[in-house]
Every structure is written in C-alpha cells, then in structure tokens.
Amino acid sequence: MLWIAISFLFFLVSPAASTLDGSVNDSTKQRREQIVARHGAVAADDGRCSMIGTNVLRIGGHAVDAAVAASLCLGVVSPGSSGIGGGSFMLLREANGKAQVFDMRETAPMKASENMFVGNATLKASGGLSIAVPGQLAGLHKAWEQHGKLPWKRLVKPAETLAQKGFKISPYLRMQMESSKSSILADKGLLHVFAPNGELLKVGDICYNKKLAETLHYISVYGVAAFYNGSIGANLVKDIENAGGILTLTDLKKYEVKMREPVSANVLGLEILSMPPPSSGGASMALILNILAQYAIPSGLSGSLGTHRLVEALKHAFAVRMNLGDPEFVDVTKVVADMLSPKFAQELRKTIYDNTTFGPKNYGGRWNQINDHGTSHVSIVDANGNAVSITNTVNAFFGSKILSPSTGIVLNNEMDDFSMPSNNTSGNTPPVAPSNFVRPGKRPLSSMTPTIVLKDGKLKALVGASGGANIIAGTTQVFLNHFALGMDPLSSVMAPRVYHQLIPNVVMYENWTTVIGDHFEVPATIRSDLQKKGHVLQVSAVSTVSQFIVHNLDGLKGNGELVAVSDPRKGRFPAGF
Fold first, then answer.
1. What mean pLDDT comes out for the span 283-307?
2. The domain containing residue 517 runs over which residues?
3. 375 tagged catalytic
4. Is residue 130 a part of any domain in this protein?
5. 307, 375, 451, 476: which one is catalytic?
6. For the segment 473-494, what is each residue's pLDDT rounded down to a tens digit?
7. Which of 457, 467, 453 is nearest to 549 (CA)?
8. pTM
C-alpha cells in the first residue's frame, strides 16, 4: 500500500543543462531519482527511508520528526554507513528563521589517550579500541524533545519493523558487504545478520536483525535512557569489552549533545548555513566558494579551466582545515574566521595560476590529512517550511567491523578519525595535526557538510553528501552546478565530480558505472587539460552521494514547489507529497 500511495509522486520535468565540459546533458527522461512536491519532501540515501520520512510529514510531523524516523531507518537498511552505534550532525533551520546545530558526534572514551595507537595503527581502524562513544541516539532524541510533534514511539516503529520483519539487501549494501566480506565472516554478530548461512546475502535477499529490533522496541518504550544509562547500554559495554574495547557505562552516561551555531557565509547572493567544528565541512565549503566567487560566473567556473580552479580552491581549503578540531579542546576561533572571510579568500586567490598547479607546500599546509570515511545523508523540508539537513555515520564500512551480539548494533570506528602522533616527517609528508590528537571526551575532526541555502532570508535549498573526506568537494560541486553554472537539480547531482585532499597530491576523478547502470565520467578533454597543467590524475574507486532539495517560488503551503533529488550513485530515490 505504501508504494501505491506514493508512486504517483515520482515524476520529473527537467530541462537539459550544461555539464562540466559545457556540453548538453539531456535529463528530460523520467527518473525516480527526482520528484516534485508541494507540501514536503525527503531525500535520503535509501528510498525506503525517504518514504518513511515523508509519511511522517504527511500526518503532520515536523522536519525533525522525519529526520528521526529516516535516520533510524537508514541505521537498519544501510548499516554499513550509519546507525545508532555511530554519530551525526544535524542542521535545523526553522520556518521562523532560527537555525541551530545538534552536534551528536562520537567522543573518545575516558580511558583513551594520545598515544594509544602508536606502534599499532591497525587497532585504530577496526576492533574494540576503535569504538568511540555513540551520539546519534542522544542527539535525535534531544532534537525531538525540542521540536517533535509526533510520539517518539511512532518515529522508532518503522525502523523496528524493518529490522524485525526483514528488508531486502540493496545493491549498494551488497557492494559494502562484498568489500567487507572477510570482516563480516570473522565477526559473530555481523556473520549472524549478513551471512546467516555462511555466505553473504545477495541483492534482493531478506535480511533480519531481530536483536536490533528488540533494542529499538525497548528504546521506543523506555526512551534513550535505556541506551545511555540502562540495560541496553550495559549489554553494549560488555560486548565492547569482549572485543577489547575501553568504552564504559560511565562514558555512555556522560555523553552530551552539543548545541552550536551554524557557520554562515554570503556568496553569489545567497546565504549558506553549514556545520561548524568539530566538522571542517562548513568552513571549508565557505572558503572554496569565496575563492571561486572571484571569477566570472558562470564562464570562469566552466570547462577544464573552471575544474582546475576548483581543484586549486580545494587544495587551499584542505591545507587550512587541518588546523581545526573539537572547539571544547582547541581554540579554532581565528581559523574559522579566516575560512569564512572573503578577504582571506582574496589573498589565496592571488596564489592560484591558471596555467599550473603546485606541490602541497605551496598551499601553506602544515599538517597531514586524516582519512575519514563513509556516511549517509538526509535532506528534509516539511509543510511549514522547517528544514533539516543531517549527516549520519559509523565511519568506515560497518564501522569497527563489530556488531554487538546482544543488541544488534553496528559499532562505529570513529577513533580512526583522530590524528595519531608520528615521527615520520620525511620527504613530502608533513606531520599530523596536534589539534586533532586523541583526548578523553574529545570529538574527532569531521568532513560532514550538511548545508542549508537561503535567498533573501527565505529557504532556497538543502544539500549534503556521504563519502568521507570527499564530502566537502561533493557538496560544493552540487551547489556550484546549480547556483553558479545554472544546471537543473538532477543534472547538478548527476554531473561527474572531481576530488582533491591536498595530500596525496592527486586529483581523483569519476569514471565508473553504478550498480543501476548510470555511468559517471569526467570528460577526457578536461582530464587532458588538467594533466597539461601538472595535475596527477587517478580514477576514484568510490564517490560522494548527494541529497539535494531545491525550493522554487515563495512559501510552501500550496504555492511552493520542492524539487528533491537523491543521487543515483547509491541507486535510491526521494519522496514527497
């Protein structure tokens, strides 16, 4: 019945638009990745979660209600990327203009220390020691307490039902499972859920996580206290201890959701609200856009020259961002102010040459980069114009590669996002950033970039992405494609993307085909021109996945139009009504 109720919404009227190389991308054919809605829309990494979020909006739920339901859904059907064993960043902009950030980033356990991984970096990437204190559930509940309209149990129920009655393995989840096959077969909890007969479940197979269903049911009845100060937390801690971890029940009890102000920048006649530290995403995106806004729009950002300028701006942003860290432990005031400053961007723009690129040292980067990993994203607008952009994560595919047998929860490996002290500074490898060293209770640096765009004080768009450190580049390119290059929303998301993280000094570019048959390839002419300027190119094995909603016309109740796009790189779809 759910499919019948919503199927009429999947239609598309979208003009042809220019791509990276200025050619025409004919996106006029109907695609389920874009819908047009009047009263509310949800674009999530998995279409089942888009529909669950939209059904919440349909019965009068707030955008935060939909964010809770959709995020919990993603934790069930997309457990390789997110879940209650991880963390999130939520950006809320209310219809009255008030904006706030819910920082539910994971924190280092109190027994953690700066040198805990020195000499054995593999313990940082997976296993019990890689697990940080989960924050997503606390943050979702706090946002619901402040803004939710529907009962908490109603929002948890859809995810509980999916875990209990089973869900089909999607092509993207199957890819993650195949990539993590040895880890899944080696962990009792993961094996039981994803390879119950000793072989990985295939696309379309029904997957059950009944322990997670029990956990979600208990949380729906007794609230998040059961997780942070109750039997679920106690069982979780035992499982982590058995895996060699150091997280304690006291760590769970002491976890706090941090309320923050979003970073804000004005560029191209728009106001951009995005994520502050401990995420580097918002300030980095603002710096990139402030640099690129100094060129002629759109001609200065088109074709191979525009791509070169984008790459150079990315390199500058990544040089600066490693000075950031958890603001509770590091004074990031000046760094953030610089990254948001048009004057600072003007000085960096002077160092960009249209005929060549340079090595990392030319961009002033003092520190090596961290390699944060995968995520999931949801963009939501409700019938009253409240907007939520939320990015969820367990970090790497299936996080720590541990599924708690007693709770069904996939546990994060967020400790891997901290910098680890090293004496290796030979050659072109700079030292790691002390601003991101491990401290008890500290939050690791992130690249998550949930973003809301305003025009003349009114909601214009929401954008965000999954994809680790490349999130910054992916989110920025979708924004530029639509607001600078004039592409329609679907074309803005589907245009092939490039990435750069300064170190290694390599341009990663898309040239691959998705599991649903879409091919993304940066044109050969652009690649050739970049190489002539000295760029080293490498095909990107994975890509960012964006969720984009554009608000056309003023108002929402009856006279507005929401165009919602879910990135086909994960093969899913948005929903609306």
1. 98
2. 266-372+447-576
3. yes
4. yes
5. 375
6. 999 999 999 999 999 999 999 9
7. 453
8. 0.93
